[in-house]
Every structure is written in structure tokens, then in C-alpha cells.
Design goal:
2 domains, 3% strand, 509 residues, Glucos_trans_II
Length: 509
């Protein structure tokens, strides 16, 4: 294995260098600056509660990987360093599996896949949750290794332990982060398209066996995840949360409504003008369809209709999370979208390159393709810049609120309960995205509150990351605070902070 990695890195220096440049253009800012996003504050202030919550969600491997590697105490700088190293490793992991299935005959432009996948704003949103980003990325690589052993069973010798390894690795990946099931399905389809393009793969019967076995292995992997979660929760006497189940509309609303939700989601994804989606999908979809029908029948012969089926499946993969939920997923879970864009761009580039003889034309094509990760880098790095500025402004607001509370209570760490009512809007600067452009990364803590108890808990945890320790109000305290806050002005008015009995009320909005 070491020799294989050594040979691959030696033969793919340009792939690794170009990919690394694009990756660093987005994520290097996170290594040199500290910006705490939503949920990261919990990893610092109430880590044990967060880990218990993760266990209740079924993210068993996510918690125990932290324990195994001794990183249970969250260090954002170390996490970002490890994340960047793991991204560079991902270039080799995915490049080698593509190279293996392509039979090592062509030097593929793997940098296209990696660059588009990791610079996508959806991935920037996902990896912005730094407290779990390293493990999620590790899970993505486990999916790659899992599928490598699956195709090793098909291509080399059909040793059953290859399949056992495959199922175990993907089961672990799913228990890190359930959304990786969509990465598994998307990657399996992508690799299958490369597999049936091999000249030594001509038997339709064997190809159908590959499809069926891939499906069986996926479900077996999910069973491994499900059983692992059940066993661990039972042993630890932790009740499974409805966090993931509550997001699934299937079975809770009529089927026709779920279908409408999915169609609305697909339409929104294709036509969306936010930073997270683009028209690139439409362009790639058109090119994939044209490429599928242009001269492919002769090339694939009896495999042709299977190839068409695979391309059709590939076109559906960006919407997998919406299909699973029967509705609108959060942006950070729609990670199959950039994965499909990255693979499709790489695949089409190679398809077109084989038809072009002029080196200048190939160079122009390469530059045009590079514009996609470049544009994404601009968007994603701006997202992280927004996060940085938001944190700086939030610290200023936190200091002013803390000073006001100290004036009222006479203590830096008061014994009174602190109830934060409502939320406010931060100013940011003209180079930042504004609140309506954001999902969670870049959103301020003082801009997020679903209820008084939630907002107070969130603000309490954020203040704790700055060394300011407050007590959270109870449900009854929150109701009392809400009643008094009705007649109070909003922050930064001097009367927006008031003490009532054993409660300090901070009305943000």
C-alpha cells in the first residue's frame, strides 16, 4: 500500500498541488483566526452534554473517535490543522480509487473533483462546524476506502473479506454522520460509471450483479450502523432523540405532500440564486445527457442501456437528502450536491479531452473548468470572512452586555439568572454576507433564538467561551422575564437590561 501511495503521489504532483491551492484559498483563513460558529460554543462550554446529544442522535463513532484520539477537549486550532491535513489526504484517497477503477491507464484530472467538492459553499457550511468537521471528513474517506474494497472484489479476486471490510467501514462512516449515506450512494454511482467504461467489463449479467451487490452492501452497512447505535444507547441507558426522525416528512404528512415538497426542493436547488447553489448543475446535466447519447451506443454496446441508467441516477444524486426527508434539508446536509458536481465536471472534462487533439484547446478547456472552483472559492472564503467579522462584532456586543449586567448585579459572574429575550441583527461590513444570505455559519449568537430558554442557553454557552459565566433561567423564570420584557425597549437602549427579583432580563429584540 505504501508503494502504491508513493507512486500515485509521484505521478500526480500537479493534481495534488492544484487541489491544495484551491483548498487553502478557502480554509487557510480558518487556521489563522478563531471564529466560533453555532454549535461550536457547546463543544467548548458543555462538551459532555453535546456528546450525549450526539450519542442520542446515533452519531456513535463521532463521539468515540474523539475519545480514541484524545481530542474530547475541543481545540479549534488543532481541529482546523487536522482538517486541512485530512483534506490533502483526501486528494490521494479519492484519486487512487478513481485511478484504480480506471485501470491506471489514463492520468485523470482528479484536481477537478477535489477542488469543486471542497470549495463548494455547501462543504464550507458543513466543515464550518469545526467541532465535528475532522470526523465527518474522516467518514467521507472511510466511504472511499469502503468502496475501494467493494470494487477490489469485482476487479481483482472475489475474496469475501473484502466485502466484510467494506460493510464495516461504511457502517462506521454512517455512525459518524448519517448524511454520509448520500455520499456513499453518490460515490457508488460515480464509481460504477467509471467501472462500466473499462474495456474488460462487457458482460451485462456481471454488471447487474455488481449493481445488486452494491445495493445489498449499502443496506448491510446501514444495518451495521443501526445495530451499533441501538447497542451503545442500550448499554449507556440513553434514549434515542427524535432529532433526525423529526426532519423526515414521510409518514407524518400525506405522500402527495412529500412529493410536492421534493419537487419544490429540486426546483429551488436548480433555480436558487443563493451562495449555496448555482446554474452549474443545469449545464452539467445538459452536457451529461448529450454525452450519453453521442457515440456511446457503439462504445458500450450491450452495456449501453445500463450506462444510460447510471447517468440518470447520477443526475438525481444532488437531491438525495431532499428525497430521503420528503422535504427541504439543511444546506450542510446536501453534501451529495457538490460531490456530484465535482465528479461530473471531472468526468466530462476527460470525455471531451479524449476528443480534442489540440493542446491549446485542452488548456482553454482546463481554464474554463478551473473557473468553477475559483468562483466557489470566492464565495466560500467570503463566508468564512463573514464568520470572522461576525465573531468580532459579537465579542463587542458581549462585552457591552456583560458590563451592563455587572453594573446592575455588582458581579462579573452574578448568581442571578440571565434571561435573553429575542434576538438582534448585527451590522457586519459591506464585504460580508448579510443575515438573509446565511444558514448557520456566519450567523451571530445574538441573532439566533427560537425561544427564551433556547436563546438564553445559547447565549450563556457563547459567553462562557469568552470566560463570562452566567446562570440559565428555568422555564418559569423565562415566562416571568417575557412578561416584564413586553414593556422594555430593545438593546442597546440603557433600559434593555433590567433586574427583576433573581432574574436579569436582557431584551435583544
Amino acid at each position: 500500500m505504501y508503494e502504491n501511495i508513493k507512486n500515485f503521489t509521484r505521478n500526480n504532483k500537479s493534481n495534488i498541488i492544484i487541489s491544495s491551492v484551491f483548498i487553502l484559498s478557502v480554509y487557510l483563513i480558518k487556521l489563522g483566526t478563531l471564529a466560533t460558529s453555532i454549535d461550536n460554543e457547546a463543544a467548548i462550554s458543555v462538551s459532555s452534554s453535546l456528546y450525549t446529544a450526539w450519542l442520542s442522535m446515533g452519531r456513535i463513532a463521532l463521539v468515540y473517535l474523539k475519545k480514541v484520539f484524545g481530542v474530547g477537549i475541543y481545540n479549534p486550532f488543532l481541529s482546523m490543522f487536522m482538517l486541512i491535513i485530512l483534506m490533502i489526504f483526501s486528494i490521494i484517497t479519492w484519486g487512487m480509487i478513481f485511478d484504480y477503477i480506471k485501470n491506471n491507464k489514463n492520468k485523470y484530472a482528479y484536481w477537478i473533483f477535489i477542488s469543486i467538492f471542497f470549495t463548494a459553499p455547501i462543504m464550507a457550511e458543513q466543515l464550518g462546524f469545526v467541532m465535528q468537521a475532522v470526523e465527518v471528513l474522516l467518514g467521507i474517506n472511510l466511504v472511499a476506502i469502503s468502496l475501494f474494497y467493494t470494487y477490489r472484489y469485482f476487479i481483482d479476486t472475489p475474496k469475501k473479506y473484502y466485502l466484510i471490510i467494506s460493510v464495516i467501514l461504511s457502517g462506521i462512516a454512517f455512525s459518524i454522520y448519517q448524511a454520509l449515506t448520500t455520499i456513499y450512494v453518490t460515490a457508488a454511482i460515480c464509481l460504477f460509471i467509471l467501472y462500466i467504461s473499462r474495456k474488460d467489463v462487457t458482460n451485462p449479467k456481471k454488471i447487474w450483479q455488481v449493481i445488486i451487490l452494491n445495493i445489498i452492501l449499502f443496506f448491510l452497512s446501514y444495518v451495521v450502523y443501526f445495530v451499533l447505535a441501538k447497542c451503545v444507547l442500550s448499554l449507556l441507558h440513553i434514549e434515542a432523540t427524535k432529532y433526525t426522525g423529526d426532519q423526515v416528512a414521510w409518514g407524518t404528512v400525506p405522500v402527495i405532500q412529500c412529493i410536492k415538497n421534493i419537487l419544490k426542493y429540486i426546483k429551488g436547488t436548480v433555480t436558487d440564486n443563493t451562495i449555496f447553489y448555482s446554474k452549474v448543475y443545469v449545464v452539467l446535466a445538459i452536457l451529461l445527457v448529450i454525452n450519453a447519447f453521442y457515440g456511446k451506443k457503439e462504445k458500450y454496446d450491450k452495456r449501453y442501456y445500463i450506462y444510460i441508467l447510471a447517468i440518470g441516477a447520477l443526475l438525481v444524486t444532488p437531491f438525495l437528502m431532499g428525497i430521503i426527508l420528503g422535504g427541504q434539508p439543511t444546506k450542510r446536509t446536501a453534501i451529495s450536491y457538490p460531490f456530484m458536481l465535482g465528479f461530473s465536471s471531472m468526468y466530462l472534462f476527460e470525455e471531451i479531452r479524449t476528443k480534442i487533439k489540440n493542446k491549446d484547446a485542452i488548456l482553454i478547456l482546463m481554464v474554463l473548468v478551473a473557473l468553477v472552483p475559483f468562483k466557489q472559492s470566492v464565495l466560500s472564503s467570503r463566508l468564512y470572512y463573514t464568520e470572522y467579522i461576525t465573531n468580532k462584532e459579537s465579542e463587542i456586543v458581549a462585552t457591552k452586555i456583560s458590563n451592563r449586567i455587572e453594573e446592575i448585579t455588582g458581579s462579573y459572574n452574578p448568581e442571578e439568572k440571565i434571561a435573553f429575550i429575542g434576538c438582534m441583527r448585527l451590522n457586519r461590513n459591506n464585504s460580508c454576507y448579510q443575515l438573509e444570505d446565511l444558514e448557520y455559519v456566519g450567523r451571530g449568537f445574538f441573532e439566533t433564538s427560537f425561544s427564551t430558554t433556547h436563546g438564553s442557553f445559547l447565549m450563556r454557552n457563547y459567553m462562557a467561551t469568552l470566560g463570562i459565566n452566567y446562570q440559565c433561567p428555568s422555564e418559569d423564570d423565562a415566562k416571568i422575564a417575557e412578561e416584564y420584557a413586553k414593556d422594555m425597549p430593545a438593546w442597546p437602549n440603557k433600559e434593555s437590561v433590567k433586574k427583576v427579583d433573581n432574574i436579569v432580563i436582557v431584551k435583544l429584540g
